[in-house]
Description:
The complex is a heterodimer of chains A (about 280) and B (about 70).
Chain A: H1 3-26, H2 39-49, H3 56-64, E1 66-70, H4 76-86, E2 90-94, H5 119-130, E3 135-139, H6 145-152, E4 157-160, H7 165-178, E5 182-188, E6 191-197, H8 205-208, H9 219-222, H10 226-245, E7 254-259, E8 264-269
Parallel strand pairs in A: 1-2, 1-4, 2-3, 4-5
Antiparallel strand pairs in A: 5-6, 6-7, 7-8
Helix pairs in contact in A: 1-3, 4-5, 4-10, 6-7
Chain B: E1 3-6, H1 14-24, E2 31-35, H2 40-51, E3 55-59, E4 62-66
Parallel strand pairs in B: 1-2
Antiparallel strand pairs in B: 2-4, 3-4
Helix pairs in contact in B: 1-2
Amino acid sequence: MNSRRGFLRDLAAAAAQVGSAAREATAEPVAPASFPLSDAELDRYGRQLALPEWGLAQQAALREARVLVVGTGALGSPVALYLAGAGVGRLGILDDDAVELSNLHRQLLHFTPDVGVPKAESAAAKLRFLNPDIVIEPYRVRLEPANAGALVEGQDLVVDCSDAFATRYAVNAACCAARVPLVEAGVSGFTGLVMSVRPGETACYRCAFPAEPADAPGCAEAGVLGPAAGVVGSLQALEALRLLGGVEGALLDGFLQIDLLGAAFVRVRTTRRPGCPDCGAL
Amino acid sequence: MARTLDITAFTCPMTWVRTKLELERMAPGEALEVRCREGEALENVPRSAAAAGHAVEVQGTTIRIVRA
């Protein structure tokens, strides 16, 4: 649901109008401090605010947003870095693993001295260095059907960067139940997939993929080059910002199929399934 | 009386960012007078404003922009 963001946007517009009336009366030059964003925020986010598609409303929506990133690995690293850098106000990062040496070639949030450190804590430390103006909430838990509802509740968006189909289905079911928008993604070898979901409005992950593929390799045996995961995670982060900022073109009612060996991006259309166990009743 | 914005203290890209965000808070048809320094801002801000679809007029170091 976007009602909270919509409300804040209206509030910002109303505040801007009041400010404008006051300035008209006094004909004073506009003081930078009268902006809804602070000078520090304007400096930090200036290059995104310069975009025609991104402005005060989008940046304010981001600051008020609460986002949960499930997993801080190969996908979660670029996602959390970009969302923290962009100014998401409250960023939850969830991971119950510890950093391993074999993670480092693709998991940008973790470095060699972090080996053995819980990933949620390792990630939180880097993200706080990146942007001390936002709140980072690390969760050292594994998302399962039993706790998914509580973790997803109250979020404005969930970005699923997990590496297991069971987790993806648990995230999807919880997001549908709570009507929380979701960005799903996966990467295996040189292929990847990104999909956005507005539960009750567009096809959910289970609508598109009703059952786990029988031949899906486990993540550890699949093999992946770091940048391949980075591309998919970056696209996922872009989707998240697009949904939070209300920028057109999100991968809704469809997914992006990415072939990084053939350098091919294909947008595949999907539709809601009336009998979907996760979103059919919405 | 037109709104005024002083961007003489800023450099690229903040000269345009400050101008753009002020324009975002205005109604279509409203005018903004931007005071800037010679050089980069005087070249880039009018170009960016015109590219964004606004009507632009430069008088000395003042850029007058009518919001589209």
